[in-house]
Amino acid sequence: MKTVLITGSSRGIGFQLARCYAADGWFVLLNGRNEESLRQAQVLLENEYHAGTDIFVCDLSVTGSAEKLYDSVRRKGYLPDCLINNAGVGYLERSWKIPEDRDEALVVLNDISMMTLCKLFIRDHAESGTGTIINIASTGAFQPGPYIASYYASKSFVVSYSRALAAEAEQYGIHVCVFCPGPVDTEFYERSGGRAPAGAMDACRAARYCYKHQSRNVVIPGLLNRAALLVPSGIKMKIVGFLKKKQLK
Ligand SMILES: NC(=O)c1ccc[n+]([C@@H]2O[C@H](COP(=O)([O-])OP(=O)(O)OC[C@H]3O[C@@H](n4cnc5c(N)ncnc54)[C@H](OP(=O)(O)O)[C@@H]3O)[C@@H](O)[C@H]2O)c1
């Protein structure tokens, strides 16, 4: 039975990805900070798909936590065939008003833990010549984001790192995909201090798109999101700034 490790999988896109894998008979390793939410997700997967699951409570915004998570996974005897770096946060605010420790934790979660887990996974798989990594970025990666600057910048890092890693790891039989959704209807917005825009994609639909198209290196769901790649980044930045400024409290 194949095993997938999905960070931030107690709800939202991560949980919907967990459903895709569980439906296909994979053993799913769930991660998040809240044990109760993880247990609820576990019960849902087991009831819906009779899926094999395990949970790993770990706050990946803490330096060194990615190593601890991966170590716990390996010590329990799991060797994931697929790693999905999904856990991520963003803050809607004037950049200088965000406390330094909040932004630092954002970078550790969105970038450093993602990068560390990729390294640990590839070291385990380089000899066997198999394995897949999916890193969750955002269409926010493709232009700067006024009033949500650290989040957009962190996602640019995810795209750039993932594409470079894909080129390196391919020769060792390891596939790297970066998934870049536009707005998705989850608790992300509420927690970031904003609200989901009208027309945000359903999380289940976004996850299914990712699951289906993961053999590509860069996956962007939605025709409009793909068409937006053709718009110069300076123009997109102005639109983002205008829309985000309206949401500031
Ligand atoms: N929603 C969107 O519009 C959108 C668009 C593009 C990209 N994305 C990206 O998609 C990914 C998932 O977002 P989502 O919308 O599904 O968000 P969400 O609904 O807020 O879910 C986030 C998940 O990550 C976990 N998490 C949060 N902080 C964590 C930490 N420090 N350590 C470990 N787990 C943590 C949460 O569980 P706990 O809180 O219990 O830890 C939860 O399971 C993120 O990387 C986000 O940037 C989202």
Q: Mean of residue pLDDT?
A: 97
For the secondary structure, the number of strands is 9
How many domains, as an integer? 1
Described by strand count, sense and barrel closure, the largest sheet is: 7 strands, parallel
How much of the sequence lies in strands comes to 5-15%
Task: Please give a structural write-up.
With 249 residues, the protein is an alpha/beta fold. The chain has one domain (3-247): NAD(P)-binding Rossmann-like Domain (Rossmann fold), CATH 3.40.50. The chain has helices spanning 12-23, 35-49, 65-75, 100-125, 149-169, 188-192, 203-213, 223-227, 233-247; strands spanning 3-6, 27-32, 53-57, 82-85, 132-136, 175-179, 184-185, 201-202, 218-219. The strands form two sheets. Strands 3-2-1-4-5-6-9 form a seven-stranded parallel β-sheet, sandwiched between helices. A two-stranded parallel ribbon has the order 7-8. Helix 4 (100-125) runs parallel beside helix 5 (149-169). The chain is globular, with a radius of gyration of 17 Å. The relative contact order is 0.14. Residues 7-14, 31-34, 37, 59-61, 86-89, 109, 136, 138, 181, 183-184, 186-188, 191 line the site of NADP nicotinamide-adenine-dinucleotide phosphate.
Write the layout of secondary structure elements.
Layout: E1 3-6, H1 12-23, E2 27-32, H2 35-49, E3 53-57, H3 65-75, E4 82-85, H4 100-125, E5 132-136, H5 149-169, E6 175-179, E7 184-185, H6 188-192, E8 201-202, H7 203-213, E9 218-219, H8 223-227, H9 233-247
The protein binds NADP nicotinamide-adenine-dinucleotide phosphate.
NADP nicotinamide-adenine-dinucleotide phosphate (NAP) is lined by residues 7-14, 31-34, 37, 59-61, 86-89, 109, 136, 138, 181, 183-184, 186-188, 191.
